[in-house]
Design goal:
alpha+beta; four-stranded antiparallel beta sheet; single chain
């Protein structure tokens, strides 16, 4: 991992943090251009990029260590990075007629290296409209996979973001875009001060998960009681007959 967080241990210069952020953003950015018609770029907001941004923001605004930590925590919560996999996507029409994405919510999806497919939970409505110039926005995917485990985990070798049917032009309507990030998992180091907001947010997410599971457990218990009552009624009916 790139050594990011000099600003958390010392006051790094703005030029240092700008350079680190630029390098980190480039590392987690994938793009593809289709002829001279349009291009698609996506930035994967993983913890490494989040912390690089926080260091850059802190240096630009002369934040103290405590202020950076508070901003980091607020940034994670505001952008919901611990609840979702977030991609900053830019669709840029270069030449020719406007783009007109068809069923964006069905023709845009994320896959892992096991072949599991995940559709976006949230994205800007502009991606459903005609694109005359450029559209940028965040696309949110569920963080938890079909096996009830994080989609991006230590065993994940790659994730791929797929786009298709972004244009109704005959020569491009079937054009597929595949943006792949290899080794997307960043192991957390909660012993470092810069990871504490991540830890707090993870604890909050797990606490919310417990509340949800408790509610599901209560519902199952109620259903079980109803089933047992129905069984007794059927048995009584049999005895009466």
């Amino acid at each position: 991992m790139v050594v990011l967080f000099v600003s958390f241990t010392s006051l790094a210069s703005k030029s240092d943090t700008d350079k680190i952020y630029s390098q980190t953003e480039k590392k987690w950015t994938q793009s593809q251009t289709v002829g001279d018609a349009f291009s698609v770029k996506a930035v994967f907001w993983n913890p490494e990029l989040v912390q690089a941004w926080v260091a850059k923001y802190g240096a630009e605004n002369l934040l103290s260590l405590e202020e950076q930590t508070a901003y980091h925590r607020d940034f994670i919560q505001r952008e919901r990075f611990q609840r979702y996999l977030v991609f900053d996507v830019t669709i840029d029409k270069l030449k020719g007629p406007a783009l007109f994405p068809i069923n964006f919510n069905k023709n845009t999806y994320l896959t892992d290296d096991k072949g599991n497919k995940y559709y976006p939970l949230e994205y800007p409505r502009e991606f459903d409209d005609k694109i005359f110039d450029k559209v940028t926005g965040k696309i949110y995917f569920n963080r938890i996979g079909k096996d009830n485990q994080p989609i991006v985990n230590p065993e994940t070798k790659k994730i791929t973001l797929h786009f298709s049917h972004l244009s109704i032009e005959p020569s491009y309507v079937a054009q597929k875009i595949e943006l792949t990030w290899k080794d997307p998992y960043i192991p957390p180091d909660y012993t470092e001060a810069s990871w504490q907001p991540e830890l707090e947010e993870e604890i909050l997410r797990l606490q919310e998960r417990i509340i949800l599971l408790e509610a599901q457990k209560k519902e199952l218990i109620e259903n079980q009681k109803q089933i047992e009552s129905e069984i007794e009624n059927v048995k009584n009916k049999i005895e009466e007959l």
